[in-house]
Amino acid sequence: MSLDHRLSAEHEELRRTVEEFAQKAVAPKIGEFYERHEFPYEIVRQMGEMGLFGLPFPEEYGGMGGDYLALCLALEELARVDSSVAITLEAGVSLGAMPVFRFGTEEQKREWLPRLCSGELLGAFGLTEPECGSDAGGTRTTAERDEKTGEWVINGSKCFITNSGTDITGLVTVTAVTGRKDDGSPRISTIIVPSGTPGFTVAAPYSKVGWNASDTRELSFSDVRVPAANLLGEEGRGYAQFLRILDEGRIAISALATGLAQGCVDESVSYANTRQAFGKPIGANQAIQFKLADMEMRAHTARVAWRDAASRLILGEPFKKQAALAKLYSSEIAVTNAREATQIHGGYGFMNEYPVARMWRDSKILEIGEGTSEVQRMLVARELGVG
Ligand SMILES: Cc1cc2nc3c(=O)[nH]c(=O)nc-3n(C[C@H](O)[C@H](O)[C@H](O)COP(=O)(O)OP(=O)(O)OC[C@H]3O[C@@H](n4cnc5c(N)ncnc54)[C@H](O)[C@@H]3O)c2cc1C
What we know:
This protein has 387 residues and is an alpha+beta fold.
């Protein structure tokens, strides 16, 4: 075992660059976008210019030639300040571009990745449907082959899809039933649907509890025709593909959750040192100090957990259990830290102009998206060989 737990010089430089960007370019502006439920195009454009959307992809496809650790470091630093911006990057890279990179043909990669890596276009991943989320094997959307033209004809709907309706959304990768196996179970495949394809409708943005400056929509497909060449990977392999994408994505969500948990510490330490009550800073009280120490302990432990899962992924080792543990732990402690941070801020913590109020509203979804806490516990139990 290597005893050096420190980041490489390149990773540390990236972390610092994103930290500075988050503090200087995101923190002063994002509150207003959040209040107006508005997508922050200019911030996303700047993130594209910095190369953040191309972090884990090879340079030959327009990427930065980095790795999944680099992506996660960027996500953690962004989420220390704001989660809407962080989830836009997470969904754009690990759900939008990654399926094309992992399973696409050379032609599909060359067509889509350069513009996804530069942030000129955003990608989305449409798995969840109104009738099924955790149980994604219950997908009802269908894609049938038109025998004459060879095209896929897609019918159905998807819900809660991140990045699917912005002005720069270029594609949504959708899972659809393309046939039945001998035992009657569905054959699920993944198909690229470019934005603007006739019959593909994007609803108005949802009104959400949190992530208010990120784009989340319901999608419907009515006889949507795309070329045969838009199939991603092999027909019938869609289930295995999205399991892989979600396993990786959980590490990214864990880094994002860790960032939120750390942001709660940052904000609360500064507030505890300045807010006066009973003639002294509230941070002079051991009750507040202990809350802060516990919050720091949780954020630190979550960071260790996601970095462990990320290093296993990068080394090509099994990482399913570690990714589930990291996602489960970091999302739950993000909620706890956000609750404690709000408490430390007293009445001001309930005011939207304070970042901790935004963090509180943004924390809950972390226990739900990309696999609920119950699903993570099911995965861990399965890995333990129970049931
Ligand atoms: C803001 C936002 C953004 C999202 N972005 C995307 C996206 O980009 N792409 C996408 O495809 N999806 C996206 N989702 C969907 C998200 O991944 C799902 O909401 C999530 O997987 C849960 O599915 P569900 O909502 O259908 O809940 P359900 O699966 O109906 O679950 C409801 C409850 O039952 C529990 N439950 C279910 N089965 C079991 C079981 N066997 N044992 C114990 N408990 C169980 C669940 O844990 C949960 O608590 C997003 C959701 C939100 C809110």
